[in-house]
Amino acid sequence: MKQIIIIKYGELSTKKDNINYFLSILKNNISNNINDIEHVITYDFGRMFIQVREEDIKKVTERLKFIFGIHEIIVGFISNDKELANIKENIIKLIKDKEFKTFKVVTKRSDKSYPMDSMEISKNIGGYILKNINNISVDVHNPELLVNIEIRKNEILYYFNGILGLGGYPVGTLGKGLLMLSGGIDSPVAGYLAIKRGVKLEAIYFESPPHTSEFAKDKVIKLSRILAKYNTTIKLHVINFTHIQEEILKNIPHDYLITIMRRMMYRISAIIAHNNKCNILVNGESIGQVASQTLTSMRVINEVVKMPVIRPVACFDKLEIIDLAKRVGTYEISTLPYEDCCTIFVPSHPVINPSIIKANEYEKLIPYKELIHEAIRGHEVLYIGIEEEKKFDDIL
After folding, report:
1. Is 28 exposed, middle or buried (0-12, 13-18, 19+ CB in 10 A)?
2. DSSP letter at 143?
3. Residue 40: alpha-carbon gap to chain centroid
4. Is 396 exposed, middle or buried (0-12, 13-18, 19+ CB in 10 A)?
5. Is the pLDDT of residue 392 over 50?
6. Strand, helix or coil at 289?
7. Structural domains of the chain in order of their starting residue, each with its CATH number
8. For residue 367, cis peptide bond before it (omega within 30 degrees of 0)
9. DSSP letter at 199?
């Protein structure tokens, strides 16, 4: 018997005519993630199989936990010996050192030429386990140990309880999006949820030196690095927003500062997205959380772009977002006390029901088109990935 990693698909199995497209991208995503480890990946419409050296199995399974499109990760065993007597002995060898009081045998038989059906095999093997291991019993509803046997055309698979994967769709199957990434709690969570639905993300960050610090920028880079674990890499566009923000502060009525500032960010983001072949903008807006996220404000701000804007956490409350941020791994970084440009000039009484007419009139007070083009021409691009972490794997 040889150890093998088995991938179960979950939601992907609902795809029919185009399932091969989804599976080929999942295979490529896995291969890219473990490209520093010798591996062979094969798949059919029911399972994906990853063969690596035994000493690399733990490292690979840890990385698979960050890949979308996987329902379950299982370290199993494969054998070409399909004799029932030998199947029984193999099962005993594999489970004799496991701690359990109850078990259940589940057999799948894709090889219909096998002389026994699935139910007969399960009963036969279950009885053999009871005879050879003391103080255990069968529990068909909630077993501590699930003994899975798959009898395929050319081999037998044995596997037990697996590791729950992230689910969702493989990254890249639904095209590209641009995440408006601040240093707060909400936008990284929104990015994670977009990646989960198969969207390959780039990100955009607005800095305003000297009003914002290098610590704030470093915070966003760290958040990008976490998102890159799920996205493979993050191309981060850093926009110097200082000139635009100072012009807004000098010329725009203070209750409209946030509204006009967000409209400028949307315009810049839409241009960057278009230039990088992104189909959507993604942000962390949550309905009613702040003045710029009332329905009226969102409508007035959204009005300046034609590109679809996806708000994955729009209907989440703050506690739900915080809980997900902790699970994703971004919460501690997001709560570091470094202000971004969205928070440094917040007026004491921002308008919560802005007018499109007023917003358009106020914008005539500044040369915003020239300012936007200046910011885009001079913007910085950072490529953030997980290669450093892979290198550390060999040292730790």
Report:
1. middle
2. -
3. 24
4. exposed
5. no
6. coil
7. 2-167 (3.30.2130.30), 176-393 (3.40.50.620)
8. no
9. P
Q: What is the rounded distance in angstroms from the CA atom of residue 107 to the CA atom of residue 50?
A: 21
Is 389's pLDDT higher than 80? Answer: no
DSSP class of 46: S
pLDDT in tens, 137-192: 999 999 999 999 999 888 999 999 899 999 999 999 999 999 999 989 999 999 99
Contact call for residues 223 and 183 (beta carbons, < 8 A)? yes
CA distance 83 to 79: 11
Separation CA 195–CA 78 (nearest Å): 33
Task: Say which residue the tokens 């470094």 belong to.
Answer: 338
Question: Residue 372 in contact with residue 244, Cβ under 8 Å?
Answer: yes
- Give the chain's radius of gyration (CA, Å): 27
Name the phi and psi angles at 71, rounded to 5: -85, -40
2-43: per-residue pLDDT in tens?
999 999 998 887 787 889 999 999 999 999 999 999 999 999
Is 187:219 a contact under the CB 8 Å cutoff?
no
pLDDT at 198: 97
Parallel, antiparallel, or unpaired for β 233-240 and 380-385? antiparallel
Q: Is the per-residue pLDDT at 216 higher than 80? A: yes
Residue 44 identity (one-letter amino acid): D
Give dist(CA 393, CA 363) in Å, integer.
51
Report the alpha-carbon distance of residue 253 to residue 362 in Å, rounded: 8
User: What average pLDDT is seen over the chain?
Assistant: 93
d(CA 298, CA 301): 5
Query: DSSP for 74-87?
Result: EEEEEES---HHHH
CB atoms within 10 A of CB 355: 14
CA distances from 341 to 60, 231, 369 (A): 39, 25, 20
Distances (CA, A) of 69 to 63, 161, 189: 13, 19, 18
Q: Answer yes or no: are the C-beta atoms of 83 and 69 closer than 8 Å.
A: no
Strands 233-240 and 200-207: parallel
Question: Cβ neighbours of residue 31 under 8 Å, at least 6 residues apart?
Answer: 39, 41
**Distance (Å, whole) CA 4 – CA 175:** 31
**What pTM did the predictor assign?**
0.90
Beta bridge partners of 225: none
